[in-house]
Amino acid sequence: MTTTYEPLLADFLATHTYLSDQEKTTLASLRAFLEEHAAPYVNTWWQDGSFPHDLLKNLADAGWFHHPYEQTRPFENSALFRGMIALELARVDASLATFFGVHTGLAMGSVMLCGSEEQRQEFIPKMANGELIGCFALTEPDHGSDVARGLETTAQHSGNGWILNGTKRWIGNGTIAGLAVVWAKDTADQQVKGFLVDTTTSGFSATKIENKYALRIVQNADITLDNVFVPENMRLQSANSFQDTAKVLKLTRLEVAFAALGNAVGAYEKTVAYTQQREQFGQSLHNFQLVQDLLAKCLSNITSSWALTMEIARMTDQGRQEDQHSSMAKLVVASQTRQVVAWCRELLGGNGIVLDEGVMRHFVDAEALYSFEGTREMNSLIVARTITGRQAFV
């Protein structure tokens, strides 16, 4: 497997020069792995709505779940490198980046940021080697953007533990996870707390959401918690309010922006190749002015998004990133990606709506990336709160 890093076609600003040699070598290995084990099969997985369990094992065996964390210490690698992992995954398929982000970001991140030292020592190694896959159960059937105030899942203290009751929806990895990070409202103090739930526990059930036409490879679930008992040592010891939940979301939102960027890059690469090969009126499409105009628009969106995410990644490494920065990255990149994939679909004409060329996957997956991990509107209000000093969520 090659370990020589080749700059991506869409890397107009040569952002790869900000990566260390070791990071570039590692990313080259991931790219080669994905080209061999994922790219030839993603259309089939997407059409079937199936999850590639063998790929998961191969990712774990290759050590990829270790990269966000070294043993139990967080973030040994740069934020740009972690973002580039998401980009490389999403340029092949956004579902792969979403699975990876839920497991290594939201789930492992919850344990790292909000767990006790004992919890980190017990669960991070198991999650890093793929023995235990995690999910992050926050969103509910009736509460998405307003979940901070409207959370209905309850946690009632009982003896040496807690009783959880409620329902969750759109939980990525929900049907394949062995460990669920569940967020529930304490009935005593009305504060949101986090719990590590073994998914084999009595009263816990996860049902795959069917008829989903974006991110089809990700196994999203409806989760029911019916008097689920969680011992006190499985409560996240440093998760005592929604502000602690928000720390985890802040950690992962930038990487979701990188995933959206990777989705745009994947569509752009396929489109450039298509316009070079496809002939109309006796010449390749890429010779026509209107085609070149749309390609330039695509690359301009990608480049401005890449510059923004790269700078915020650098701010993250310097400890200067705030909520409004990651929120701006998510709203800008997801919005510009939506435009890019639409232009790419347009350039492929009728072939843009079939799976064969791959652009259609990126096109519909962009809709999901546009909405989850904070809608455009919610992230816009977080940015605007910084501008005005006023909160306008209701």
UniProtKB/TrEMBL annotation:
Domain of life: Bacteria
A biological-process GO annotation: fatty acid beta-oxidation
One matching Pfam family: Acyl-CoA_dh_M
GO MF: acyl-CoA dehydrogenase activity; flavin adenine dinucleotide binding
Residue ranges of domain Acyl-CoA oxidase/dehydrogenase middle in the record: 135-228
Keyword check for Flavoprotein: yes
The protein's name: Acyl-CoA dehydrogenase
Domain Acyl-CoA dehydrogenase/oxidase C-terminal: 246-387
SUPFAM superfamilies: Acyl-CoA dehydrogenase C-terminal domain-like, Acyl-CoA dehydrogenase NM domain-like
Record flagged with keyword Flavoprotein: yes
Domain Acyl-CoA dehydrogenase/oxidase N-terminal: 21-131
Cofactor: FAD
Protein family (similarity comment): Belongs to the acyl-CoA dehydrogenase family.
Keywords: FAD, Flavoprotein, Oxidoreductase
